[in-house]
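User: Now give one protein:

AI:
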Amino acid sequence: MSENLAALLSDARRVLEEGGSIDAATDARVLIAGLLDLSVADFVLHGDRVVPPEQVQRVREALQRRLRHEPVHRILGRRDFFGLTLSLSPDTLEPRPDTEVLVDALIPIARELVARNGAARLLDLGTGTGAIALALLSEVEGLMATGTDIAPGALETALRNADLNGLGDRFACVESRWFDAVEGRFDIIVSNPPYIRSAVIPGLDPDVRDFDPMLALDGGADGLDAYRAIALGAEAFLNDHGVVALEIGYDQKQAVTDIFAEKEYHFLTAVTDYGGNDRGLVFFREKP
């Protein structure tokens, strides 16, 4: 049966609250807006709008998926990141807002490299949706990017996102485990690698544990396997005056810095996320 928009939103919030949702109001609003192509203003200005029965049913089905801990943006199949809309797939992490701080840190570095050299190349290891690379391409003219991933489905998603955002002519993909199939040299090597300790994964929130790909989560016994692999291999692919930038776990700043120091990288800068936690590190071998 039909409902008006205000009633549908109220019902959705109640269902999620009763199901134990931590932020039922936001989840209900984002789900309905995404499913019905509405703006935030529509809920305020058009609450009396009649929602057809077939759309009401779509919302109810989505609510049941959310009650089974499927994240809102996975239900919608897309998420906004740094002003871009990115499609998601089972092979990709859902890009989180905290990763945007690493993009912010790299924009001035990338622009300086382009200004100095006329162009710059970026390598995004474990690109997933392509979020980091595509965000930087959208902000820095003269930058070209290559994304790698070991999951073919992730590469398909990243290429689709590049095309959807008008960046396909500056973005390429390579199926590769870290540097195994990479060729050439780059001015920026960036990665949001798996960094969660294996023993911690069973206790993760089911929104993450049951829906994000395990390959993108499990960083090994101490959570640092990926950083060792990147530190070991990056020199052969990094241009003079280039940088390596990494997302890290909240408690990994010193450990990752030590790993890169052992390979003669120098600390350039660190960034914290919106919660004040350590979130990203940038290293260099020769001063950029």
Notes: The radius of gyration is 21 Å.
